[in-house]
Amino acid sequence: MNDTLNLIKQRRSLSTKQLNAPGPDKQQLVEILTLASRVPDHGKLVPWRFVVIEGQARETLGNVMATAFKQSHPAADSEMLETEQQRFMKAPVIVALVARTMPHPKIPSWEQQLTVGAVAMNLLLVCEAAGFSGNWLTGWGAFDRRILNELGLKPIEKLAGFIHIGTPAVALAERSDRARPDMADIISYYGE
């Protein structure tokens, strides 16, 4: 089995607690995002963009999350608020993947959304190939307009997710796997 197939076979997401410093530096991150962007893109619309959250910005966004959570859940206790405040403090780099699909006469929004999903999967694979690891998460903040505004998303943009990136605490070959679908349940052959 070649290296690429082996990487795909072994890839598993680590929890954000297992994504340690260092994360990719700026040059490495640009290379990672460049490679992640090599996806099928009908019409060359580039219906995605990235917002990088690192350093002090992680704490700032965590404070915004805690404030918004408290506004939506006035009875939230200090432990719940601390969870929200610390949401972006585990991994050293977080990339918010923004979907910017647009009406097009020939390319439906659905195709554009699939392209954004391909960018996310490529990003996870490229991180692994570069010696890092990633975890693609959403959570309530990915759908909350206050958080989207804080990240600079326009009203027509959506957040596909937060990709948390860091140095893996567990080697690729040592990661436990989850149950995978039985191929007999999800493969059919037209005409048979």
UniProtKB/TrEMBL annotation:
<dbReference type="InterPro" id="IPR029479">
    <property type="entry name" value="Nitroreductase"/>
</dbReference>
<keyword id="KW-0288">FMN</keyword>
<feature type="domain" description="Nitroreductase">
    <location>
        <begin position="8"/>
        <end position="166"/>
    </location>
</feature>
<protein>
    <recommendedName>
        <fullName>Putative NAD(P)H nitroreductase</fullName>
        <ecNumber>1.-.-.-</ecNumber>
    </recommendedName>
</protein>
<keyword id="KW-0520">NAD</keyword>
<dbReference type="InterPro" id="IPR052530">
    <property type="entry name" value="NAD(P)H_nitroreductase"/>
</dbReference>
<keyword id="KW-0521">NADP</keyword>
<dbReference type="Pfam" id="PF00881">
    <property type="entry name" value="Nitroreductase"/>
</dbReference>
<dbReference type="InterPro" id="IPR000415">
    <property type="entry name" value="Nitroreductase-like"/>
</dbReference>
<keyword id="KW-0285">Flavoprotein</keyword>
<keyword id="KW-0560">Oxidoreductase</keyword>
<comment type="similarity">
    <text>Belongs to the nitroreductase family.</text>
</comment>
<dbReference type="InterPro" id="IPR026021">
    <property type="entry name" value="YdjA-like"/>
</dbReference>
